[in-house]
Amino acid sequence: MPPARYDRTGRRNMDLLQEYRRAELFFEAGDPAYAAKLLEPIVAAEPGNTGVRQLLARAYFGAAQLNRAEDQLRAMLVSDPTDHYAHHVLGRTLERLGRPAEALGHLRLAVAMRAEENAEYSAALRRVENRVNG
Hints:
Elements: E1 5-6, E2 12-13, H1 15-28, H2 32-45, H3 50-62, H4 66-79, H5 84-96, H6 100-113, H7 119-133
Antiparallel strand pairs: 1-2
């Protein structure tokens, strides 16, 4: 959730928070494209907010706007290279973009960084390893 913002008089500006909540609802309802449309101005206003950026990346991924998802995920990894989830989704994005060799490194990192076993991470890694190794 984005942090509360204040206008010049010190009052809370709830517009961003309300738009974020609306975006979550649209994303959860299966409309990632509209969720992304709502999230774009929030990320522009709060570029350091990784929670909002992550939801935007997921929305782009879900809407098959894969180049945009890649951009958001790479921005997340610049600020936190240890974000296993960002590595996982970036790997999945690169896989869908037809770049399995690039995806492999991110998927391996995600599996290695995740403290506990994650079936989704492991399945994605095996799938891309099989594709790369033939």
